Each structure stands twice: as C-alpha cells, then as structure tokens.
Amino acid sequence: MKTILTIQNIVKTYKMRDGVVNALNDVCFTVNRGDFVSITGPSGSGKTTLLLALSGLIRPTSGNILFENQQLVGVTDKELAEFRKKHVGFVMQNFSLIPYMTAIQNVMIPLGLNGKSSAEQKVQSSSVLELVGLENRFNHFPRELSAGQQQRVAIARALVNKPTIIFADEPTGNLDPLLSTEILAFLQKINKELNITIMMVTHSPQAAEYGNVNIRLVDGKLLNRSTN
Length: 228
Ligand SMILES: Nc1ncnc2c1ncn2[C@@H]1O[C@H](COP(=O)(O)OP(=O)(O)OP(=O)(O)O)[C@@H](O)[C@H]1O
Ligand SMILES: [Mg+2]
What we know:
Layout: E1 3-16, E2 19-32, E3 36-40, H1 47-54, E4 62-67, E5 70-71, H2 77-87, E6 88-91, H3 103-113, H4 118-131, H5 147-159, E7 165-169, H6 177-193, E8 197-201, H7 205-208, E9 213-218, E10 221-227
Parallel strand pairs: 3-8, 3-9, 6-7, 7-8
Antiparallel strand pairs: 1-2, 1-4, 4-5, 9-10
Helix pairs in contact: 3-4, 3-5, 4-5, 5-6
Bound molecules: adenosine-5'-triphosphate and magnesium ion.
C-alpha cells in the first residue's frame, strides 16, 4: 500500500476576539492511495477543518502534511493552488453549484481555471456528466434538477480534473436515504474503478460503513482510526 497523505501533529487554532478555538489538536494519521476514508465525530469536532487543511484551502497553525512526498505546509500560496488544481476535487454538503450556470457550465469551471480551450472543456465535461448518468441534463440549471442530480453535478465537477483525491464534506447530508445510497454507491464506484482516494465526512453511521478506514474526531482530537 502506497501512502498518499501523511498527517503529522496537525494543530489548527482559530483566534477570536474573545479567545481561541482549538479546532484540531495534534492530529496524526496516514492515508493510503485508493483508501475510502470516512470521518465521523460530533458537531464542532473539527471534521470540516480537517478536510479544509488537507485540501490546502486553509493552513494549519502547526504540524506537517505530506502529499506523497510533497510538503503542503510552508509552501507558497501559488504552490498550494497548483496542488489543488492538479490533485484535489471537493464536494460540499450544499452542492455549491453556481445557480445561473447550467449543469455543463458548472462542470466546466475547473477546466477553465486550468486553461483548457472551451472545446476541450465541453468534451471533457460532457463525458463526466455521462459518467454520473446526467447525459440528458446538460443544459438544466441547478434549480431544474433534483437534489440527487445536483449532487451528481457537484461530483462531476469534482471529478472533471481527474483528481488524485476527492474530499467530500457530508455529501449526503441534504439527501433522502434513497438518494444518499445512490451517491454513496457512486463514490464507491469511482473509488474502486478509477482508484481515486476519497475522504468523506459524514454524520451517518451507515454512510461511514462505505469507508475502508474510519476516523473519529472528538474535540479536535483523533479518537480512533479503524479499518474494515
Ligand atoms: N473560520 C472559523 N473561525 C473560528 N472558529 C471556527 C472557524 N471554523 C470553525 N471554527 C470552530 O472550530 C471548531 C471545529 O469546526 P468544524 O467546522 O471543523 O466542525 P465540524 O466537525 O465540521 O462540525 P459540523 O459537524 O457541525 O459540521 C468549532 O468549534 C467551530 O466553531
Ligand atoms: Mg462540518
């Protein structure tokens, strides 16, 4: 098994006017390439903060993060942005689709940021939308799609850059049980078939079972890392 992420003594402290919040407190673990990691823990335990730090969207206060052998702490903003563009897909609970853009336009966004021509953007976005089963919904706006379809557009957008790792923050939090199962099965499929590493935050014990590794956070501390 090849290690893809090494998390060493991560601390994240938010400084507020009335004191500090220790959102992550000395967290250490490793992730192997191809793992499906589920992250559980009470509200406020640091799950989102952990995903943001690992995906390079925020910087930890101290500690080290290695992606393969590349340092993610202490690098420039530009290097961190490069890492995100090249390796990271992010799926959020509220889908975070742009409301005035169609499904295909939403999926094209990361490709535009990567400087792809609009013809290339269309071809690649179409094929990922087909992969998530939305071949008949290219020109629908988010409000014209069901919740599950919106989440599939968000997953297509996270996938379009062929990321090495997808971070998903409660991707089924706003979905009914049937749609949740559909999205989880889809994440499992891209994990197995495309060998994309997945780190998924969830409140649901059933959803957590999709992971081969489970991480539990309590008060910013890693309480448990188990494998099934
Ligand atoms: N930008 C911020 N500024 C200050 N404090 C923050 C910030 N983001 C998070 N926190 C605090 O850090 C702690 C961890 O927050 P985080 O969002 O990581 O929790 P979580 O486990 O994702 O919770 P939930 O399950 O409710 O989404 C919380 O106490 C929160 O109030
Ligand atoms: Mg959260």
